[in-house]
Write a structure and sequence with these properties.
Order of helices and strands: HHHEEEHEEHEHEHEHEHHEHEHEH
CATH class of the largest domain: Alpha Beta
CATH architecture of the largest domain: Alpha-Beta Barrel
CATH topology of the largest domain: TIM Barrel
Structural class: alpha/beta
Number of helices: 13
Radius of gyration: 21 Å
Distance between the termini: 24 Å
Strand content: 15-25%
Largest sheet: 10 strands, mixed
């Protein structure tokens, strides 16, 4: 059994069955999530007999590192993990900061990636993009994970473990995770219960204590789950992968559009905003000549008018299984300007790690999922 799959009450009950006092559960919990221990030997505040029992009953590391790649600018690392059943998942660490903190193009990979950030760095972010499934059942044609197909859901502990893997790595250089996005392999709402359990574990004030508002969940638009998420009134940020303004155009690239129409998705978003008061982000992969024109931007603005929302556009990450190309910087800027002139906030997201196949599913596809 994976230890990270247990919440604190379950861990407490299990230790009670072992004849251990309740405070032992708290010691283990703090070791896992505050001190980031990943082996029984590190729990020196526990009796040797209990450490041996933990080693016998639990797995602390749910995966092995199959490979990793660092970007040439030294600010992105992608790790390919292999699970015990042989399935592969990916997680990415992206470092952002002041322009003065950015290493020159072509600098040695590790010279600054794993060095401490300069003192006084403003706005430094250490963002993780983590997976919620091995593969994905949604089948978006431009997505490398969608091209691989669905393998299985990840457990809550396997999701948490990706965060803690990078948290340990950053701790070694006096840094910490600042943001988590569930935008890696898989559709988070397709694995709803495990994803929410993982978020709760990461958010636990007596554990890792990671703020919910620094977590973003991205979905292709599973309407019932959006409404359920709204009813739970979580403070996690919601992002919708939209990518098209008409249903037929969306269906051509996203099979989920056959089940959930854009109007249904937008109605669910209105419900989410009414229930939570929180803004929705619409993700938009800019595909040259497909959805990056001013005309499309104007239609999108009309659809989103009156919504508390923001459009996060990013030039398409190219994949071997899709012929579409990324929009040029000029076309992306014009798309952004058209939206903003219509009153819809928009940002063009920086593409990171293109040369290391940092788009979700790309490295796993290259290695062989």
């Amino acid at each position: 059994m994976l230890l990270y799959d247990l919440d604190l009450p379950s861990l407490t009950n299990l230790l009670a069955q072992w004849g251990e006092p309740a405070y032992r559960a708290r010691q283990i919990w703090e070791g896992l999530y505050l001190h980031l221990y990943d082996s029984p030997a590190q729990f020196t505040n526990l009796p040797i007999s209990l450490r041996a029992k933990l080693a016998e009953e639990f797995t602390f590391n749910p995966f092995t590192v199959k490979t990793f790649l660092d970007s040439s600018d030294g600010f992105t690392r992608k790790t390919l993990f292999q699970l015990p059943d042989g399935h592969l998942i990916e997680a990415v660490l992206m470092r952002y900061g002041d322009p003065a903190d950015m290493p020159p193009s072509g600098s040695p990979q590790n010279q600054r990636f794993w060095g401490e950030s300069p003192k006084g760095t403003r706005g430094a972010r250490r963002t993780l993009c983590i997976s919620t499934q091995a593969g994905c059942a949604m089948g978006c044609v431009f997505c490398a994970t969608g091209q691989l197909g669905f393998k299985r859901h990840l457990t809550s502990g396997e999701i948490v473990a990706q965060v803690l893997y990078y948290a340990r790595m950053l701790k070694d250089v006096n840094e910490s995770v600042t943001n988590i996005v569930l935008m890696g392999m898989g559709e988070p709402f397709h694995n709803y219960d495990n994803v929410m359990a993982a978020i709760d574990r990461l958010n636990d004030k007596d554990g890792y204590n990671f703020g919910a508002r620094r977590i973003t969940l991205s979905t292709v638009g599973l309407v019932p789950q959006i409404r359920r998420f709204a009813d739970e009134k979580r403070q996690v940020n919601l992002a919708i992968s939209l990518h098209a303004v008409e249903d037929d155009e969306r269906l051509a690239i996203m099979p989920v559009a056959k089940r959930y129409k854009i109007d249904e998705i937008l109605d669910a978003c209105r419900y989410y905003i009414a229930q939570t008061g929180r803004r929705v982000t619409f993700e938009w992969a800019l595909i040259s000549g497909v959805n990056d024109t001013p005309e499309v931007a104007a239609k999108l603005a009309a659809r989103l008018k009156g919504l508390l929302c923001h459009v996060n556009a990013i030039p398409l990450n190219p994949t071997a299984g899709y012929a579409g190309q990324a929009a040029s910087r000029q076309r992306a800027e014009r798309f952004k300007q058209t939206l903003e002139q219509a009153g819809i906030p928009c940002t063009i997201r920086m593409r990171r790690g293109i040369e290391i196949q940092a788009g979700c599913g790309q490295l796993a596809g290259a290695v062989g999922l």
